[in-house]
Design brief:
alpha+beta, 19% strand, two-stranded antiparallel ribbon, single chain, 116 residues, 6 strands, four-stranded antiparallel beta sheet
Length: 116
């Protein structure tokens, strides 16, 4: 898999019950802001093994807070999660975020899952 980041949180790789954040070493400016002079950083390559899933999320997921005000950490919050299908990965993620927040959300959340 090749990764370029233009302003959103990096994806999360779910493989064998483990989660890894795939963060760009050098993130780019958000799309549409390239006129500010930053060169586009080169892509990075990561393994995407069969049986694994990639979860792409917006900050509405990573900035979801529990009643004490602590942000949801996808790496910790998704540990042990099954990735039987992309649909199951999205549903499991949203269920875990809702459990973290007590079902209260103040931000929009977008999630994309790709299963291999």
């Amino acid at each position: 898999m090749r990764l370029l980041n233009f302003g959103h949180p990096g994806p999360y790789l779910l493989a064998g019950g483990h989660v890894r954040a795939l963060d760009a070493e050098v993130p780019n400016l958000p799309l549409g802001m390239s006129g500010f002079g930053q060169e586009v950083s080169p892509h990075q390559e990561f393994a995407f093994p069969p049986g694994s899933s990639l979860l792409f999320v917006t900050d509405g997921v990573t900035e979801s807070r529990n009643p004490e005000g602590v942000f949801f950490d996808p790496v910790r919050g998704l540990e042990g999660m099954s990735c039987a299908s992309a649909k199951a990965a999205v549903n499991s993620l949203l269920t875990r975020v809702d459990a973290w927040t007590g079902g209260v959300s103040t931000d929009d959340r977008a999630v994309l899952a790709v299963a291999h």
